[in-house]
Amino acid sequence: MRNSVSQRPATSDSQFHVAKSGLWFGFWSALILVLAGTGFAVTLNLIPIAVPISLALVAIPMAVLTLTYEHERSRRFKAEANIHSVLEESERINAQLRKQTAFANSMAREAENANKAKSEFLANMSHEIRTPMNGVLGMLSLLEDTHLNNEQQSFASVAKNSAESLLTLINDILDFSKIEARKMKIEEIDFDIRSMLEDFASTLAFRANDRALEFICGLAPDVPAFVKGDPGRLRQILTNLAGNAFKFTRKGEVSVRGRLVDEDVETVTVEFHVKDSGIGIPKESQEKLFESFTQADGSTTRLYGGTGLGLSISKQLAEMMGGKIGFESEEGKGADFWFTARLKRSEKLPEPRAMGNIAGVRALIVDDNQSNLDLTESLLNSWGMIVTITQSGPEALQAMYDAVDNGLPYRLVLIDMRMPHMTGETLGKIIKEDSRLSEARLVLMTDVGRRGDAGTFKSAGFSAYLTKPVLQSDLYVCLAQLIGGADEKVVVKPARDLITRHSIAEDRKARLKILLAEDNLTNQKVALGLLKKLGYRADAVSDGEEAIKALESRYYDLVLMDVQMPRLDGYGATRRIRDASRTSVFDPNIPIVAMTAHAMEGDRQKCLEHGMDDYVSKPIDPARLEEVVTRWLYRSQSFVTRRPTGAKTLHKKSTAGATGGAAVLPATAEGQSCDTSPRSSSVVPAAAAFSVFDRDGLMDRLMGDETLFQTIVAEYLVDMDNQLNELSKAVADQDVVEAGKIAHRIKGASANVGGDALAQVAFQLEEAGERKGDLQRVGQLLPLITHEFNQLKAIMQKEVNQ
Q1: What's the rounded Cα separation, in Å, for the pair 495 and 362?
Q2: What secondary structure letter does DSSP report for 279?
Q3: Residue 426 backbone dihedrals phi, psi, to 5 degrees
Q4: Which residues pair with 413 in a beta bridge?
């Protein structure tokens, strides 16, 4: 500070030196004048006069210069004083700024910590709430399947809908907190965008039917089948937008369409439109629509519920995927919400379809809805068919007569059920009663079917009927089956059989084959029994080596792979299957789903890193198993089975990532694709907190099959006697690792048959043995395992003998 003040400003310093130089110049000039004047005066004898004049000549400049000098010095001192004042003020301001900056940084850290604590709290709370909510939803679903009167059924339905709404709210709040804390991550995995959209459409079909709305869902043919991105978040945006569309639409239609808007060597940009014919959005509410906790109608008496979080979350997710979101709406005339997503190209390619069966076939589409016409026409055109569209029954009949007269009759007629003036059923009867037109195969597309519809439509002359929204894969298989052909990939249905969505699904299941790799006998029986009840054929092997041999000897469509097995575990087997240079399996990219009792955080990622595609935890939940198996089997089929028809061929392995180019669809709000139920993931201090035998849970997993129940229990008891003998031997040999492995098998089998208390003790022994090497703890738990098994055995034997 002192050094700063001592430095003179450039301007003041310059002025001081000028004044000083002028003073000296004046002094010497005056002195010269005085001397010159004196000499001149002496010469003229004028000294009395010259001396005063000379003195005046000296004094006047000296006075002037002195005044100038004093004035400049005064100005310099004032300038220095001002600079000193300014610098002091500047230092004070800087000190305040440093203090405010430190305070702001402190507040930012506190805010960040608070935000992190809030996010962690919301995450923990969401898990804590979700657990009982799953129980509530499960019990309500079971309740709805019991014998209830109309009033009780209505009560149960309302309660279930309310529980589902609450669960959706919990998930939205968790997602919002993750986005706010910048913890939301967008995955980048290969997935079939058409399959994703079809799965999405099928979940909304019943909602459309309940509201008597036309629901259209489709993707333009030029969109690549496989892309790389986050299918879970993409579907989440679609669900939010479509959910709002259904909520605010009382009559008319809701459509979901996707199209390609931009592409380059590495990426494709897809634009989705969710359009409805509902109430629309007032202009005054449009600007704030994407704000958090905001609705178009914020009054307490609004007819429509919701938090307003869905659109805010959708906006954030779209932007995280490199896209934008927006809408167009006019009050009373519906809304058109759109968003874009930039997705990377995938190296994974769909299997070729049996195009020869329907390419070149002449087809007529009859539908009064223009959106439906456009979508169906584009699909059939992309499959190589020759298509004509009409919007009413009379117009369709005229088109068919003209085609017959021209010698080019239509072989297929796709008819919408609900049309003005003439229904689809009536049109079908007219066509079949006319000998000129009756050779055409008729496909009826209707809302969700009712019992007895199959017989009614079959008698009306229809060869097939599909419920809306019609899945592209179902439509393709249906048309291929109706036309038939020599291609052995397409199963030709006899003309007397009516083709439906259910028959297509049954045909697929009959053609598909699953390989189960599981070393535990009880778990094998449970899984095989469930797959059989679901309509699938499956073979079982006991370890990874046998699984590889089976995949080398014949073709399978999917593998259910236990993680922990002797000789070669599930991880090692998967790595070898994926590496075509090490094995000669038919398909190195076959979908592999991990089945394990491990459900700890990080287990899912470990499965994916080893090349597995998905993950289900034990005890096996039939609904979850069916969901995962259906997803991966149908996703790998590309409308028709991909079974090789000749010699063994090795498919080119994708280099898209550890999953072998396959998709992982998160099934929970956090993006987890596995069931992490507390029963299989919590370390419980005592088995007393769990039931000895959960008979109802086992019957649910066996889908009520009493005969299978008797078989599973009998074989489990025999297997457990052997496992306990091996466990006792391992403890006696002080082999804690082997003891842990045996405990793992006991845990998985016991959890599957409802022996919850035994499963929990086995879990603790597994932790103590295989993971911690604690021989003392293993020895303490062995008697407890024996005790719990004896209790379970007594109850099971009593149940079997009843």
Answers
A1: 19
A2: -
A3: -65, -45
A4: 364, 442
* Secondary structure in 3-state letters for 528-553: HHHHHHCCCEEEEECCHHHHHHHHHH
Summarised one tens digit per residue, pLDDT across range 608-627 is: 788 888 888 777 777 778 87
Letter string b/e over residues 96-116, b meaning 16 or more CB atoms within 10 A of that residue's CB: eeeeeeeeeeeeeeeeeeeee
Task: Report residue 478 as tokens.
Answer: 């249906």
Q: Please provide the average confidence, as pLDDT, over all residues in the chain.
A: 75
Residues near 71 by beta carbon (within 8 Å), at least 6 away in sequence: 19
| CA dist., res. 289 & res. 295, Å (int) | 6
**Of 348, 322, 638, nearest to 508 (Cα)?**
638
The span from the CA of 175 to the CA of 198, in Å, is 24
User: What CA–CA distance (Å, rounded) separates 489 from 401?
Assistant: 34
Per the listing, tokens 């809408």 go with: 327
How far is it, in rounded angstroms, from Cα 229 to Cα 33?
99
Three-state DSSP at 467 gives strand
563, 528 Cβ separation under 8 angstroms: no
Cα torsion 548, 550, 552, 558 to 10°: value is -80
Residue 166's contacts (CB-CB under 8 Å, 6 or more residues apart) are 133
CB atoms within 10 A of CB 786: 15
Contact 422, 392 (CB under 8 A): yes
Residues 6+ apart with CB under 8 A from 604: 615, 672, 673, 674
Nearest to 753 by CA among 783, 714, 802, 801: 714
Report whether pLDDT(64) > 70: no
Q: How far apart are CA 673 and CA 232, in angstroms?
A: 10
Q: Which has the higher per-residue pLDDT, 290 or 380?
A: 380
Q: What is the pLDDT of residue 681?
A: 34
Tell whether the model's pLDDT for residue 412 goes beyond 60.
Answer: yes
In the beta sheet, which residues pair with residue 547? none
Determine contact, residues 303/247, Cβ cutoff 8 Å: no
Nearest-5° angle of CA 780, CA 782, CA 783?
85
From 345, 344, 355, select the one nearest 381 (Cα to Cα).
Answer: 355
Question: Over the stretch 480-489, which tens digit does the pLDDT of each residue have?
Answer: 888 864 333 4
Question: Contact 374/356 with Cβ under 8 angstroms?
Answer: no
Q: Which two tokens stand for residue 305?
A: 């519920």
Which of 17-26, 195-204, 552-561 shows the highest mean pLDDT?
552-561
What is Dmax (Cα atoms) for the chain?
162
8 A C-beta contact, residue 287 and residue 326: no
What are the φ/ψ torsions at residue 362 (nearest 5 degrees)? -85, 130
- Nearest-angstrom CA–CA distance, 721 and 715: 10
Q: Which residues contact 149 (CB under 8 A, 6 or more apart)?
A: none
- In the prediction, which pLDDT does 366 show? 93
**Cα–Cα distance, 756 to 691 (Å, whole number):** 6
